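#dry-run=false #mode=assembly
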Amino acid sequence: MNAIIESRNLKLWYGDHQVLKSISMEIPEHEITALIGPSGCGKSTFLKTLNRMNDLVGNVRITGEVNYNGKNIYSPEVDVTKLRREIGMVFQKPNPFPMSIYENVAYGPKTHGIRSKTELDGIVEESLKASALWEEVKDRLKTSALGLSGGQQQRLCIARAISVHPSVILMDESTASLDPVSTGKIEDLLMELKSQYTVIMVTHNMQQAVRISDRCAFFLMGELVESGSTEQLFAKPQDKRTEAYITGRFG
Amino acid sequence: MGRRTKIENTVSLLKEKIMQAVFFIAACTSILAVALICIFLFANGIPAMVKIGLPEFLTGQIWKPGNNIYGILPMILGSICVTAGAAVIGVPIGILTAVFMAEYCPKQIYKPLKMATELLAGIPSIVYGFFGLVVLVPVIRAIFPMETDGMNILTAAILLGMMILPTIIGVSEAALRAVPRSYYEGALALGATKERSIFSVMLPAAKSGVIAAVVLGIGRAVGETMAVMMIAGNQPRMPKGILQGVRTLTTNIVLEMGYATDLHREALIATAVVLFVFILIINFAVAFLNRKAAD
Amino acid sequence: MKSKIQKFFVMLSAGITFAALLFLIAYILIKGIPNLKLSLFTWKYTSENVSMLPAIINTIYMTVLVLVIAVPLGIFSAIFMVEYAKKRNPLINVIRLTTETLSGIPSIVYGLFGMLFFVTALKWGLSLLAGAFTLSIMVLPSIMRTTEEALKAVPDSYREASFGLGAGKLRTVFCIVLPAAVPGILSGIILAIGRIVGETAALVYTAGTVAETADSIFDSGRTLAVHMYNLSSEGLHVNESYATAVVLLVLVAAINMLSGFVARCLDGGTK
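#status=ok
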């Protein structure tokens, strides 16, 4: 197993409140890893430590390491903008910018210095095709992204995330606010994307974790209780608490 | 994608730093402005207070620049009388109008009425002053033909009362709307009438906001210059009745600054210092009340 | 019974408020519109024909100047307060206190300060420039406050998305946050224009009362409100005062409505 991201003894506090208690886990390349657990268990917080989005929140203290391709992303010489380009993120609620569909996708590449119109056109088309949105929007690229449906908006956000060619995509309950049809489309999309990208997703939906993830990690009260292949974790959980959760006894 | 060179990265980092400094400096202009205002007013006004003598300046009842007599008590009292009069007229009407806006106003006419109160706030003081001059002054003169020529404390108080309405309405309405709806419903559920719920539950709950509105309105009245100047008569003498002409601190400055020199000029700046201190006290009161309302 | 009385007073007060406003507007319009003669809009001001066109042009100059100074300052300050400053930075409280102080200072005190500082100490003389700087300080707090509110209203998800793509703070602020906040900022700026147009006391001793069009920003020139003050205090031109009042009133009403209209675009625009 080739781990692209690895966390070691990762601890995180908001003020005095410890949210993550020494998380150590490895995330393999080109697979879908699902983080599951009840609300407030720390899975979303953990996800956000992986591209340092927690830096944006004040009053956070982090110890331990997160290694991306063998290098600690919390070491001082790391360029956070470069890191976030390589580890992209799709959020819980679709959050397209209030601009045109085209501009939404082109924003990332422009941020990283691409100015040529033809090149941008290429990236936009390629990203929208990769997120299976191209056919639906190719005739109205210049219209506002806010006019799209929720599911389309979320696929646009995925297109936006892959427009900068990341190697990892973090998804924070990215289908939670969508209807089943849109959710299905995005799940299909993720299955296709995993050949090129490593996907780490937080989900509340255990069926979803079973359907599409290769590996699964169960969080409870800031602890990583158990992680392993999805099949194994759901068939033969090692820990009582995992069993209790996946059989629906709490959560 | 790795198109950005090291140099470009450094440049963009530098840009971030420079702009951050620019934002910071911009944010500090307000501090600089307040500091400059204090320095220039005090440096130019305090020497005059010393020369005249602070007690003589503040409690002197005679203002005769021609004879080098500078007592601003008439103007201090003038400001207080006019402001108090404006409060007596503007505060109840303002608060009750706020109650109307927050609780009684039918939805269809709310928007135009809201815009009307905003317009009331936007009308220039000079237009108010002119309106007072051509409408209020003749009316007051007609009512009291023996006692006054129409330019007096009463006229000024009525006009100022009208001018502070939008401030009081706006802030009180916001305070009323900030009271949780459940209070109102709770009172109604106990069988109270709508009026009783509003006057015994909503208004008391919005108290600090409403008081802040009143103090803010008073601040506006104390600081108003042009409108008062056109209708208050401007005689620098001790006010003895509401039908007497009066001069306020603000109008004293505008009236004489144009031709004043030497000590006279400095005495006018000292007048501004006194006004400024008044306003600072009012400001701090508002800030204090707002903090209290926020808790 | 008590309830009825209370309700009566509420209705009465609202009635007085709106009747007073309506009366003021109607009175000025009815008395003023017949006096709006074409001759009041000729290029030259003379003592026989007190044309208000030069004052209108000066008002436009003044407004542009003030906006050039105050808008960047106000927006940048607001960006610092909302996007950059740490929540517990003590400087924030100092800045907040000073802007609150500034917004309470009466315009005559601004006028006096402008006279002492810009006109005398900096030796700019009575000039549009001195007036514009004075007014800039005066409108700065309101531009700052409206911009701050507009920035705060921009959902954090936009910022997150931009940072998530690896954009820096500056790019996020200028390309994502500011454009989304434009309607709110604009409505604040328009309200500031209303104040500039209506201001008198702060200008009499800074920009002066010369009735002709200013040749440069170092020239003295009266704005429309100052023009009206001069006309009505001289007492010789009551009809022209009415006409000027109409123009001022219509301008201010238009500015107010425009501001409200732009602010409402905010709700339609982002959601």
